[in-house]
Amino acid sequence: MRSFEGKVAVVTGGASGVGRSLCEQLLAEGARVVVADIDAAKIGEVTEAIAPLGGEVTGIQVDVTKEASVDALADQVFARFGHVNLLFNNAGVGLGEAKKTIWSLPVNDWRWGIDVNVMGVVHGIKAFVPRMLESGEEGVVINTSSTNGGLRSLPNTPIYAATKASVTSISEVLHQQLLREGKPVSAAVLFPGPHTVNTGIMASRLVRPADYAGDEPEEPVAYRTMEDLLKTTGLKMKLTEPEEVATFALAGIRSGKFWLLPESEEGDAMIRLRTEGLLARDNPKSAW
Ligand code: NAD
User: Fold this and answer.
1) List of domains in the chain
2) How far is the centre of ligand 1, averaged over its atoms, from the C-alpha of 130 (Å)?
3) Does residue 160 have an active-site annotation?
4) pLDDT tens digit string along 241-268?
């Protein structure tokens, strides 16, 4: 897809972080953008703030964990625009699970993580792809994965890593299946980075649907952004800004790339270590 001018783009998780930056940059390039998010108040704020950038912006509330809600989003978008060119299955949550063991994490957190990060992508594909294929229009489905889980799994975030491994797998299969269709619709998978991205993902619990609340005492949301976390804890860590991720993703989509994976020596070394260990049938070493 050479240009985004006049293209119809739907961005789930569009009211914050990477999703918001994608919406801003698509609008600035003249696209017609749908900001789709569970957080109605943020949709209102964001659509108002970014409308002057250009293009045309619409906000629609959606809960990607619910198939009916994503179907209703697709119905509204196709009724209004007739087709969709770009579907960003980007909504995702962090579980606040740092350093917890698989055997101690509540099942409700597993359900929530899987339902947003995995089923959200599945619901998006099911609701949009058949009509994208039917329309005959040029289209790309971009799923947001993560290098954590999506390419190799860190030991301290079990649920998140498991969900992102699944997003990479779904995206690779979608790519193959779309190639076989021989229509102008393709797939891509985005790995935001190369460093931790400075977004609101630490505060995901604030938008957890009520049906995932368990009996466990609720842990307070300590940090709203990664920057807050670093300032408060004094931790030294490089951050990538969401605008950089959006610029990188749009450039990759323009040139027809499937792997939207930023260059990173450190990241490549970890992928190489895993792949070489696997090919040598070596047991993984401790990564804690
Ligand atoms: P963010 O919290 O700033 O944005 C996520 C958005 O998703 C929020 O606006 C939130 O309201 C929305 N959302 C959450 N649950 C939803 C639901 N049920 N239905 C609809 N919308 C829902 O976080 P972000 O970092 O911008 O995350 C965007 C994507 O990037 C996610 O898939 C995340 O896993 C991925 N990612 C983030 C990082 C990072 O370092 N921040 C790294 C790799 C991958």
Assistant:
1) 8-279 (3.40.50.720)
2) 25
3) yes
4) 999 999 999 999 999 999 999 999 999 9
